[in-house]
Amino acid sequence: MKYLFFDIECSVVSKNMAKICAFGYCLTDEQFNIIEQEDILINPQGGFHLTDRKGTQGLVLPYDYSDFKKYPTFQEKAEKIYALLQDKDTLVAGHATMNDVKYLNFEAHRFHLPSFAFDFADTQFVYMNAVGEFSRQFGLGAIAQELGVEFTAHRAVDDAYATMKVAEAMCKAAGLNFAQLLEKYQITMGRIENYEIRQNTSVAFVEYKQAQERKKEERERKKAEFHVFADREKRRRNKDGKLKNKRVCFSHPLEMQTDMAKELLKKAFAQGAFYSFRAEECDVYVCFETENGQRLKTAEAVKARVFTPDEFNAYLE
Question: What is the CATH number of domain 2-199?
Answer without folding.
Answer: 3.30.420.10
